[in-house]
Amino acid sequence: MRNFNRDDRRGGGRSFGGKSLGRRDSGPVTMHQAVCSNCGQSCEVPFQPTGSKPVFCNNCFRDKRGGGRDDRDNSRPSQLDEINAKLDRILATLKA
């Protein structure tokens, strides 16, 4: 039988309850100079550009993504409504 004690830290490296939100805390990020592929302005990026992919400044990246995180979150209530309706049908079927 498996050992389910909280002190057993061999859980595959997963950290539940931490505040990292999936990001590794590896210290300060080194910023690299780049030129935006869209507007041509000088910008800094947290990775070393190789030239194989386009690099965008903050403004062009935000415009390309359609306004940021807020636009994507608007679809969630309708998705939750659909999921709830499906769950209601499943529960009704199970009760029958």
TrEMBL record:
Biased amino acid composition, Basic and acidic residues: 1-11
A Pfam family annotated for this UniProt entry: zf_Tbcl_2
Matching InterPro entries: CxxC-x17-CxxC_dom
Ranges where the record places region Disordered: 1-31
Residues annotated as domain CxxC-x17-CxxC: 30-65
Entry-linked NCBIfam families: cxxc_cxxc_Mbark (TIGR04272)
Protein name, entry field: CxxC-x17-CxxC domain-containing protein
Biological source species: Candidatus Beckwithbacteria bacterium CG1_02_47_37
Biological classification of the source: Bacteria, Candidatus Beckwithiibacteriota
